[in-house]
Design brief:
The chain has a single domain (8-225), classed as Decaprenyl diphosphate synthase-like (Undecaprenyl pyrophosphate synthetase). 42% of the residues lie in helices and 14% in strands. The protein has 7 helices and 6 strands. It has a 6-stranded parallel beta sheet, sandwiched between helices. The longest helix is centred in the N-terminal third of the chain and has 24 residues, at 67-90. It is globular.
Length: 238
């Protein structure tokens, strides 16, 4: 593997439920094993000096799943946060959260705040968990913020540019993803980082997320390194 590595990898962690079903296990077991995969990939990215890893952990749509499954997901999230603070410290990982956190419980938010505070001095990988996230809703909220600035006379309509949208997104301080990986065999973005993915390289694989290991990540990175990124220009154009 050469030095042409992405600065920001984003992953749609798909296939937990199907992995469990294939093994005649409850869906919760799939989610639990998915956490193990997330930990392994986070450590691998840290070793490779990747600067940002964003994991699509929970969409707003996921909150509409059966109540028992949502409750199990929240319990798993809570226990994982508390257990993995020391692991993040040991691997120089800084935790960050993007999404509509008001959709989550006060208890979960306090635990997230504590974990972010405890890892705030780490300067290696920044692990961004997308929780209660929706890219379309994120864009709507960004437009509302820009509209309010227009009403307040802070900006003119004629001066609105891409920066005004980007600077009002959850990811305003995070570079756009160079590489988006989706596991589980589906070939779509599913309302994830729609604005930010304009020039991202997309990598789809059939492996269910609980089975996605460091070797699978390396295969995705090898594929990324074979691609020529032109960002709408032509080869060698300055």
């Amino acid at each position: 593997m050469n030095n042409n590595l992405p600065k920001h990898i984003a992953i749609i962690m798909d296939g937990n439920g199907r992995w469990a079903k294939k093994k005649n296990m409850p869906r919760f077991i799939g989610h639990k094993n998915g956490v193990n995969a997330a930990l392994e990939i986070s450590k691998a990215c840290s070793k490779l000096n990747i600067k940002h890893l964003t994991l699509y952990t929970l969409s707003i749509e996921n909150l509409h799943r059966p109540k028992l499954e949502v409750k199990a997901l929240m319990t798993l999230l809570s226990s994982t946060i508390k257990k993995q603070i020391q692991t993040m410290k040991d691997n120089n990982i800084k935790l960050n959260v993007i999404g509509f956190r008001q959709q989550l419980s006060i208890k979960i938010n306090k635990e997230l705040d504590f974990a972010m505070s405890e890892t705030s001095d780490n300067n290696g990988l920044q692990l961004n968990l997308a929780l209660a996230y929706s890219a379309r809703k994120e864009l709507v909220e960004s437009v509302k913020k820009v509209a309010n600035k227009i009403l307040a006379g802070q900006i003119e309509i004629s001066n609105i540019d891409e920066g005004h949208i980007s600077n009002n997104l959850f990811t305003k301080d995070i570079p756009d993803p160079d590489l988006i990986i989706r596991t589980g065999g589906e070939n779509r973005l599913s309302n994830f980082l729609l604005w930010q993915s304009a020039y991202s390289e997309l990598y789809f694989c059939d492996t269910f997320w609980p089975d996605f290991k460091e070797k699978n990540l390396n295969e995705a990175l090898d594929n990324f390194q074979l691609r020529e990124r032109r960002f709408g220009t032509i080869k060698n154009e300055k």
